[in-house]
Structure formats: structure tokens, C-alpha cells
Specification:
The chain is built from eleven helices and two strands; from the N terminus they run E-E-H-H-H-H-H-H-H-H-H-H-H. The protein is mostly helical. A hairpin with a 2-residue loop joins strand 1 and strand 2.
Length: 246
Amino acid sequence: MQLLGLPIESVVLAIVVTTLGAVVQGSVGFGLAMVSAPVLLIIAPTMVPGSLMLSATALSLMVLCRERHAVVGSEVVISSLARFATTLPTAYLVSMIDQRLFNILFAIVILVAVGIGFGGWSLPFTRTNLFLVSLVSGISNTLAATGGPPMALVYQSQRGEHIRATLSAIFAIGSTFAILCLAWVGKFTVDDAWLGLLLLPGIILGFWISTFATRYLDQRAMRPAVLGVSAASAMAILVRAMWTTG
């Protein structure tokens, strides 16, 4: 049995991993794509990046509505301008490369993001650093729907609600622009939109769970698990892509 061209078991698994990713992002501010994107590229590659990006935008809007009191508007403006600068060129890159090269670039982006997470690196929270990491975030978000790890370099020292609220505003704006850019170059279609809607039950459930989990999740304990899953999936994608000829 298939749903929108995908085996029903793949759809169910996609919703499950999206739910887990939504719990993480709804609790700490980012992490949806780190958990779900590598798995989706293995089980349902047509969902990456466009469909996942659509569902991630919905999650960002939900978190933003919940914690809108903590949004810092000036940071949203600075970051959004930087992400705009790199999103369209990256969308053009995505439109020009084949699936094998996309998989390789995707895996590399995920592994770099994992390295950032495990390395524990941070940058002083300044407007200049925010602008610079946002340039990188625009690239990684458009290529692999993973805009969070670069942003964590400057935000990890901030308060939880500040991180969740402001990053949600940044991600909602940036992902919407990325979807428009991908649509412009023919890499986001009506089919991608329908596939993104398939993931919404997982997004809504994960967001609801995160409302309660925020106070109880041990972020230090959760980070290695999230990064480990991402790294293992990315390595599987990279090995498969490198093994494939043509």
C-alpha cells in the first residue's frame, strides 16, 4: 500500500522520526532536522529538503506563538538578512546537482553539524557573529534543512526561552524564503507540499509533548543521542552515495 507514492510503512516511520525531532526542537530551540532529515533521506528521500522544510516552518510558528514574549526583534532582522543572502544561491546549487552529489553534500553538512555539536565550540554573542553564522545557516538550511547547528554557536549561552523564541522566528522567516527559492528553481512542487503535510501529525504531537518536556529534558544527556543518530545516518548516506556509480 502506498500514500503519495511512498510505502505506508515509510510514511509511518517518517512521522515517528519527525515527532521525535519536534520534541527536541520544541524543547531546546532546534534539532528537528538533525534527528529526522538523515533518516528521511534514507527512507523517503523525496521529503528532503522541501517537504521537511515546510513541516519545520509549521513547527517554528507553533513554538513562536507559544513563546512570542521572548523574541528579540533586532536579532531576527540581522539573522534574516544574512540568511537571505545565501539562500537563493544555494537553491540554485540544489537545482543543478544530481541526487548522488546532493546526498554527498547533505551527508557532509550533517557531519559538520555533528562536529559542531560534539566539539562544544561557541562564539561570543555579538551582532557580527550572529550575522556570520546566519550566512552559514542559510546554506545548510536550504541544502539539508539543518539551519540550527550554526546558530547554536552563538546562542548556546543564552536563556532557553530566548533561544526557542528568537530562533523560531528566524527559522520561520528563513525557511519560508528557502521554500520560495526552491520553488523558483523547480525544487519545491505541489507534491512536496503534500508530502510536507503528511508530516504535520508528527509535528503537532511532538510540539505538544515538548510543552511538557521542556522542564524535564536533560539537554546535556539528550545532545549525544541526537548527534549520534545524525552521525550514523549521515555516514550511511555518504557510504551509499560514494558506493553508487554515476
